[in-house]
């Protein structure tokens, strides 16, 4: 007789698993530190566990929040009901869409249209850096579900999901060039951003095109004209500046001799009679005659007379 009663209990438990609750526990990624950070608060339904003792817990990915929530007074809430998108995630922490409560119907996780939201917009947000939920969801039969319950600091929902940080490169200046990365992912030119696992050390290398010069980095802790080494722990933006360059050429003429020098340096003609300068550079040329010769004046570049020649290098001159 005792044997029969025991068998009846087992059969009842099996039936409960098959028809009432998902009895197999599937680990989600809520409450990763096992410190109780798995509860939201429904104003009319009490505590809602995002990591229930039985059944599949909740998993947050870059595209969805899936699994089941257990609410002590209304039963299971399915975040990914069959045939529907369920709760979507934009990868930036913003949740949207509808969950299905087996006894209470649809529960909305966001609304941005004041006409359809009643009196207030609402949304549920997951902090990309901490994994902590905030905001409110709304069920038309159960009211608000709060994810920032102020009555007890321990009662909140937290996930191990973190936004994969993005390294973004921009180019600036009047010139052109490309920036490449190691490890690979950025080839800017055409592909100027890449997601990297948090903590990845990325080395950026700038290569100027013909008739341009790389003048330096800004952002990401980088400066100077060498490589830029960035440790990607958060979204990071780096700018590489390329400037157009043009050639200033000095030619000496006449029967005498002498030299021409420049400020900024580059021309010492004599020996070095041309130099590339960044577009817009103002260059001052000074002519010095040799003994037995006389400097009689400039021509070209907008210069004349026997004083210094000041040239703004915007084209080859």
What do these coordinates show?
By secondary structure, the chain is mainly β. Residues 1-25 have low confidence and may be disordered. The longest helix has 18 residues, at 2-19. A hairpin with a 3-residue loop joins strand 5 and strand 6. It has one helix at 2-19; strands at 39-42, 46-49, 59-60, 64-66, 68-71, 75-78, 87-89, 94-101, 105-108, 110-111, 122-126, 133-139, 143-146, 166-172, 177-182, 187-188, 193-195, 200-208, 212-218, 228-232, 236-249, 258-263, 268-269, 274-278, 281-289, 309-313. It starts with a helix and ends with a strand. It is built from 1 helix and 26 strands. Strands 1, 2, 3, 4, 5, 6, 7, 8, 9, 10, 11, 12 and 13 form a 13-stranded antiparallel beta sheet that branches. Strands 14, 17, 19, 21 and 24 form a 5-stranded mixed beta sheet that branches. Strands 16-15-18-20 form a 4-stranded antiparallel beta sheet, with no helix packed on it.
């Amino acid at each position: 007789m005792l044997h029969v009663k025991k068998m009846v209990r087992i059969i009842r438990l099996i039936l409960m698993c098959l028809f009432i609750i998902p009895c197999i526990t599937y680990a989600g990624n809520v409450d990763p530190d096992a410190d109780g950070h798995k509860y939201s608060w429904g104003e009319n339904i009490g505590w809602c566990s995002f990591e229930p003792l039985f059944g599949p817990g909740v998993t947050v990915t870059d595209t969805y929040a899936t699994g089941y929530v257990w609410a002590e007074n209304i039963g299971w809430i399915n975040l990914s009901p069959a045939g529907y998108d369920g709760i979507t995630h934009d990868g930036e922490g913003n949740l949207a869409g509808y969950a299905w409560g087996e006894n209470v119907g649809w529960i909305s996780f966001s609304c941005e249209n004041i006409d359809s939201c009643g009196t207030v917009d609402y949304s549920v947000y997951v902090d990309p850096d901490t994994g902590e939920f905030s905001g409110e969801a709304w069920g038309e039969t159960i009211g608000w579900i709060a994810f920032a319950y102020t009555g007890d600091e321990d009662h909140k929902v937290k996930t191990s999901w973190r936004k994969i940080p993005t390294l973004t490169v921009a180019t600036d200046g009047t010139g052109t060039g490309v920036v490449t990365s190691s490890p690979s992912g950025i080839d800017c030119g055409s592909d100027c951003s890449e997601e990297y696992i948090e903590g990845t050390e990325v080395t950026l290398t700038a290569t100027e095109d013909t008739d341009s010069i790389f003048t330096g980095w800004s952002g990401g802790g980088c400066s100077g004209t060498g490589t830029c080494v960035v440790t990607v722990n958060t979204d990071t933006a780096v700018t590489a500046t390329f400037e157009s360059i043009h050639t200033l050429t000095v030619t000496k003429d006449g029967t005498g001799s002498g030299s021409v020098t420049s400020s900024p340096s580059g021309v010492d003609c004599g020996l070095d009679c041309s130099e590339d300068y960044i577009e817009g550079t103002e260059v001052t040329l000074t002519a010095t005659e040799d003994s037995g010769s006389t400097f009689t004046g400039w021509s070209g570049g907008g210069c004349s007379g026997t004083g210094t020649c000041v040239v703004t290098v915007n084209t080859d001159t």
